[in-house]
Design goal:
With 108 residues, the protein is mainly beta. It has one domain. Helix content is 8%, strand content 30%. The protein contains 1 helix and 7 strands; from the N terminus they run E-E-E-E-E-E-E-H. The strands form 3 sheets. The protein has a 3-stranded antiparallel sheet with strand order 3-4-7, with no helix packed on it. It has a two-stranded antiparallel ribbon with strand order 1-2. It starts with a strand and ends with a helix.
Length: 108
């Protein structure tokens, strides 16, 4: 779930992650507003709870690093991913992807 706050207004949006069959397209980070990659991340690194892109920084809350939450490598898929469960939360500071939509609604 994506939670967005604009002043006194909060907006909640579900993010649906579905299985993708086929080759994932390569995304050029310079063409994105926010690009976060789990590539080569590990629970053993000193800054495992630091994830940022340009001016955007992530805040990790209620993480139990290791077997429950954190950076996990999927041997079958041959990829790394960030796992969140048991109340863990990731917040991207100062990133408001729906800000323009919300401003349009309040003006309209």
């Amino acid at each position: 779930m994506l939670e967005d706050t604009f002043g006194n207004r909060q907006e909640f949006n579900n993010i649906i992650v579905d299985e993708y069959e086929g080759e994932m397209p390569v995304i050029d980070p310079s063409e994105t507003e926010l690009y976060l990659s789990a590539l080569n991340r590990s629970n053993n690194e000193i800054n495992k709870d630091t994830w940022s892109y340009n001016q955007y920084n992530c805040k990790f809350e209620n993480f139990i690093w290791g077997t429950v939450n954190g950076w996990h490598y999927d041997e079958e898929e041959k990829l790394n991913a960030l796992h969140l469960s048991s109340g863990a939360k990731l917040t991207v500071d100062n990133f408001y992807p729906y800000k323009q939509d919300a401003m349009s609604e309040s003006l309209g």
